[in-house]
Amino acid sequence: MEQHVLKSKKISELREIAKTFSVEGYEKMKKAQLLEVLLTNGTEMQEPPEGIVPDSDLVREAETEEAQREMAECQALAQAENELRQGEELSEAGGSSTGTRDYRGARESRENRYNKEDRPEVEGILELAEGGFGFLRFSNFLTSDQDIYVSPSQIRRFNLKTGDKIKGISRRPNEGERFGALLYVLTVNGDEPGVAMKRPDFDDLTPIFPKERLSLETGARNDTAMRLIDLVAPIGKGQRGIIVAPPKAGKTILLKKIAHTIEMKYPDVEMIVLLVDERPEEVTDMKRSLVSGEVIYSTFDEMPQHHVKVAEMVLARAQRLAEHGKDVVILLDSITRLARAYNLVVPASGRTLSGGLDPGALHKPKKFFGAARKLEEGGSITILATALVETGSRMDDVIFEEFKGTGNMELHLDRKLSEKRIFPAINLNKSGTRREDLLMSNEEIEAVWMMRRAMANMGTQEVTETIIDNLAHTRNNADFIQVIKKSKLAEQQKDS
């Protein structure tokens, strides 16, 4: 690195560079001493192997002679592979098979040396720190001893942000270092690094109403819960849905069914289940029920700061995927407990709402819930969050009231129905989706409106039982709609 560039850096940045150089006693050095040591150690690097994008700033700033030798070994391996290919071509053209074996032997010996150097390929979720550097997280998006250091120069070059999934080549930590370091960036969120450099910012993208439907009907006659949701509260890509649930109303089972159905019918959709302040056995149960979806969790025995960090990492991850034009579904259980955690973490504003809730504690949960949107430029974030009611806590009721008008889809579960063992315990009169006309066909809308008008004066239990009984006697929702239309037509002919 050039002398004027080093002189422009703060002493904290110089110490970070010295740490990567494995400079002994760098913590006690003054700026002048650090500059002298770093300028003495600066060396030029060889060209990288073809097909791999190196971080030249990291090479100049952060690599010791040992790391440079590792890079040379990587180049030697690539050269050996080229030699092997050339040898095979010569063999096919009638050349000597002995030559091919020689090439293969050279490759194997170089591979053995390469493996001894132990530079593994890693893939993790990036979390940025205040100093401009970052770490790749692996287990549950949280800090661990396996984390990989990412230099500020790599972050600037590839426009990396918190929540990016980085795949690259790393090196093991040197003596005195706690973490390994990332040497090469291979992919960012499954795409080439160049895509991340040109991607738009999430906040600059245009939110619109959901217009592409996530149909939950699986074709099974007895899957009444999913068929019922499809009729009364359809879900689209980019939906911001809230599931209002009293205790023991079946919300966890409903979430599990939704997750399994979306995972089965829409394999291209990125599924993230976020469990905040939940029971450990439910976390295990959810993990085992999903095939490819991620389950990110913070159990009730963790600190509130742990709940908050997990939620913020999930939000950042979803935003990065949406920036790449991908569709994400987040199932949150529950937004009430997330708001409780923020209430314990945020600094007191001096004002308190009913139930002991600080008004400032609602900003971050609303930001999380408000991130759900369909983006005009492509990509979407769908969030289905549960809200607890009838828990006996005034704070829970206040939290629900604050979130009541923020969603564009509501699904109400009824405690009285669940007590009478009527499942799914969905209150059809209270449940619905805004602008459902963008998601449903004209025939479906007409049939659902007929159904709602006919049952407007009936009780909640009677309505739900009637609909569930009719669903059980039809193969799918298309047949159910035809039954409703025929019964309506028969009523009109009878009246005339």
From TrEMBL:
Keyword hit for Secreted: no
Bias (Basic and acidic residues) ranges: 101-119
Region (Disordered): 81-119
One BP term from GO: DNA-templated transcription termination
Domain Rho RNA-BD: 119-192
MF terms (GO), sorted A to Z: ATP binding; ATP-dependent activity, acting on RNA; helicase activity; hydrolase activity; RNA binding
Catalytic class of the enzyme: hydrolase
Described purpose of this protein according to its UniProt entry: Facilitates transcription termination by a mechanism that involves Rho binding to the nascent RNA, activation of Rho's RNA-dependent ATPase activity, and release of the mRNA from the DNA template.
Stated family: Belongs to the Rho family.
This protein's name: Transcription termination factor Rho
